[in-house]
Amino acid sequence: MLDVHQLDTFVLIGSVVTIIAILAVRVSSRAGLPSLLIYLLMGVALGESGIGIPFEDAELAHSLGFAALAVILAEGGLTTNWRLMRPAVRLGVSMATVGVAISVAVVAVGSHYLLGLPWELALLLGAVTSPTDAAAVFSVLRVVPLPKKLTGALEAESGLNDAPTVVLVTLVSTGAAAEHGVLAVLGIIVYELFAGTALGLAAGFGGAWVMRRAALPSSGLYPLAVLTLAFLGYGAAAAVHASGFAAVYVAALVLGNADLPHRTATRSFAEGLAWLAQIGLFVMLGLLLSPGRIDLEIVGYAIGAGLILTFVARPLSVLVSSVVQPMPWRELGFISWAGLRGAVPIVLTTIPLAEGVTDSTELFDLVFVMVVIYTLLTGPTLPTAARLLKVARRSEPRGLEVEVAPLDRVAADLLQVTISPGSKMHGVEVGELRLPTGASVSMVVRDHETFVPERRTVLRHGDDLLVVTPRRLRWRTEERLRQVSAHGRLAQWLGGRKPRRPS
After folding, report:
1. % of the chain at pLDDT higher than 90
2. Are 466 and 446 in contact (CB under 8 A)?
3. Would you tell me which CATH number, out of the four given (3.30.70.1450, 3.30.565.10, 2.120.10.30, 3.40.50.150), belongs to the domain 400-490?
4. At what angle do helices 329-337 and 314-321 cross, to 10 degrees?
5. CATH architecture classification, 12-388
6. pLDDT tens column, 274-312
């Protein structure tokens, strides 16, 4: 049991490690290195070969790792724009299912015949290394400007491909796969995916319905409530032996794209929580590693398995998956290179560790080394690969930022609108906004000063507008503001049609 003195020590060490990890993000970005490598090395430095903190509990690592992955997936869903993801969702789902199956098979066969690994170990190696890492992919997509279909495909794949691999690794580790056969395993995977997705949709749409009608007394409760609803999907799925990872991602995706109050605050809160989960996850996995076990044989196996995965399994899986949504070879080439592995493969190796599978320790060490080597290879080279393959687009500044706060007593919403650089709302008069009847600009904040605008007041870059709109007209008001931001004062209503209401 954890006593008070141990708790005090844990708080002290945890605070120091977290602060160092936060500061390390800036160092890693300047050096062009993925932050996960720094966190892993911090964990190794804190472990038996460094400071000497003991940590060998594979079951605890398994539980905490799954919890951290759930938080990371929830943040990924909340911050994903469905409009950007929708054009390539078919390819993303195909890569998360068919692509994973092909990758598992290729890595398993290659590891058995080329590297000489036993079939069970080779199959586990293929399963744990097949999913891309959501945290790594989401972080890269924030830096590398890509077309919508590439971004959507990578986001959909990284958000959904954890679910089938977790099921497969669990079945193989417990011996259930050998006992039930291939068809039964496929049936279990299909059930978990579909049931998890269905429960995620139920939690997302049901939660959005509740949140639109809830009048919470504090704005800080909204982010907490939204994340709780996403984890409700995870818990419900786990209770019926469905995929909790699929449920939490789908639920968060629905909630993140719903018409809810305090969306910006919710996403910021989720992003901070996901950073904390990443730091704790990577440091814990570094603690679990014993550098003394790493020898040339392990390094050789890691390099060989990585070559099979990166240059054979990944390209083949992307190529076959693209049958459902063909793309130019340049884009497929980039998607193939962007299959970043991170914490997910290492976390998945804790399943056979916890189950006591033969050679599971060697599997953990092999995957750990492989992740480090190939993250160093692929992560820093992604911007260069995007330029060489001519798939990168020019980074455009965000034209308009809108935050929403409810005014429940008058059935209205208060929109805080920031006119960012690149917005064509600059130079537009307030009267030229032509907001829906009942909506109005009540205040302008400019250069730290506030004033009530008139119809002839000219808006400028950097202005913050407070717009009051009846709740029933909020989505129309937002759409009109975005039209003016994109096209200027000449922006027209969409051919006389009402804009499509967001889901």
Report:
1. 36
2. no
3. 3.30.70.1450
4. 140
5. Up-down Bundle (1.20)
6. 889 988 888 888 888 888 888 899 999 999 999 999 999
